[in-house]
Amino acid sequence: MPYHEFEVSKVIPERKLHAVVKGPGEDLTSCLPKGYLNTIPGTISERGCAYCGAKHVIGTPMKDVIHLSHGPVGCTYDTWQTKRYISDNNNFQLKYTFASDVKEKNIVFGAEKLLKQNILEAFDAFPDIKRMTIYQTCATALIGDDMSAIAEEVMAERPEVDIFVCNSPGFGGPSQSGGHHKINIAWLNQKVGTLEPEITSDYVINYVGEYNIQGDQEVMLDFFRRMGIQVLSTFTGNSTYDSLRGMHRAHLNVLECARSAEYLCDELRVRYGIPRLDIDGFGHKALGDSLRKIGLFFGIEDRAEAIIAEETARWKPELDWYKERLQGKKVCLWPGGSKLWHWAHAIQEEMGVKVVSVYTKFGHQGDMEKGVSRCGEGALAIDDPNELENQEAMLTLKPDVIFTGKRPGEVAKKMRVPYLNAHAYHNGPYKGFEGWVRFARDIYNAVYSPMHQLSAIDISKDDYETGKGFVTRRMLSDACLSAEAKASPLTGYTGKFDPIPDLRQKTYPAFERRVAPAAAE
Predict the structure, then answer these.
(1) Angstrom distances, CA of residue 277 to CA of 32, 191, 273
(2) What whole-number distance in Å separates Cα of residue 141 and Cα of residue 171?
(3) What is the pLDDT of residues 229-244, one digit of tens each?
(4) Distance CA 375, CA 359 (A)
(5) Are β-strands 354-360 and 380-383 bridged in parallel, bridged antiparallel, or unpaired?
(6) pLDDT band of 519, cuts 50, 70, 90
C-alpha cells in the first residue's frame, strides 16, 4: 500500500495510514487510505461535530421554521454569512438564529424551564411561524434535559404549533456525519406520515440530499417541472416543514447527496416501499445521464432528451471556451464530503483540469473509494487532514487552485494559492448545465486573477519594473493559445449575474394525466 507520510506528522505515526499516493497501475485494492475513524489524538482535526451535521447542514435549510439550539449561545453561530442555502421566503431561516443561552446555573439546576420559556418567546416574537426544530447540544445532553417532554407540553398548550426534536449532541459521532444519520432517522420516526399531501401528477418524487446552496435546488426543480414531475418535498433545501411530513406518498426518492441523506432514503424504501435513484446535478454528462434515468423510470425519456438537447446546445460552447483555457491546471479537490467524487471526474473530463489531490473530512470509506478511483496517477488522497498537512501538500503539489471550505481556504490564500469555496460557493448556483459553466468561470477567474499575480510581488524591495503596465485575465489565459483560438468569436459565460429570480417567476405547461386523480393513489 503506497501510504504517504507527511514530514509534519512524523510524530504521529498513525497518520501515515490516512494518506496514499496513487501510483502507476494502482487501483482500490492497493491504494486506499483509512477513513471515517475517530480523529487520532495529537492531530488537530478540521472536522465539524455531530450537532453541526444535524443542524447546520441538514436542519436549517428548512425555510418556514424557528431553528432553536438548546445550549450555550456560541453553538448557534450559523447565519447568512456562513451558510448560503437560500430560500424563496425572503431567507427567514438565515436571518434569525435562536438559542436558549444556557449558563452555568442551568447546568447545575437544569435548563428545561429555560427551554420552555425560550420556545414560547420565539413563537410569540414570530406569530406567523408555527413550526420549530430544537437541537440538542453537548451541554444539555450531559445534564439530561428532556427536550421531547417540553416540546409535548408546548404542543398540548398550543395545538396550532408543531415541534421536531433532534437529539444529536456534538460528541455523537466521529464527525458531522454522525449528525446527518441522527437527524435523518429522527425526522422519519417523528414526522414522516403525519400529514397527507395533495398529489397532482402521475410522476411524484422526493428530492433528497439537496440544500439549495445559492439556488441549486431551484435549478434542479426547473428540470423536473419541465418533465411534468411533481416534487413532493426536498430534503431539506428551500423546503417547508409540512411538505417533509408527506414524504411517504412519493413514487421515487431521487437522491443527490448520498453521504448526508441516504439513511432516510433507505428507510423510506423499507417502511414505505419507495425506490431510491441516485443522481448527480454537477457536470453536463452526469446531469444528462441523471435526467435520462429519471425519465426512464417514469417512461418519459422523450421529455428528458428534449431538455438535455436544448441545454447542451445553449451552454456547451461556453464550457468548451473555459476548457481550452484551463487545460492541465492543477487542482486540489478538498471539499470535505462527497463532492470529491461528484466533481473529480467531471471537472477533469469537461474542464480539462488535473486533480492532484483529494481529501475528505467527514466522508466514509465509500466516498474515498469513489474519489480515488476517479483520480489519475500521482494523486494524493488524504483522510481527515490537519492544517500543517494541508500546507505541506500545497507546497509540494503547487496547485493552481484549490476547492475547499473557508478555514483551509483562508490559509491557502495566505500561501498565494487561489481557492474556491466548495461549501457555500463563490458565485453559484453550480448545478445545472448553466451552473456548471458558472463554476468553470469561477475557476478561470481564480486561476487567472491579476490580483494573485500582484500578490506574489515582494513590495519590500524597490526593484519592480513600473513600466510593465497591467495585465488582464484574458491576456494571461490566452498567451499560449493558437491564433485560431484567439480569433474565435466565442466567449465565456454570458448568463445573468443571478439566474434565480427568473426561475421563481417561471410558469410551466400542464401535462395531461394518464389516469384519473382519484384512481392514481
Answers:
(1) 27, 23, 13
(2) 10
(3) 999 999 999 999 999 9
(4) 12
(5) parallel
(6) very low
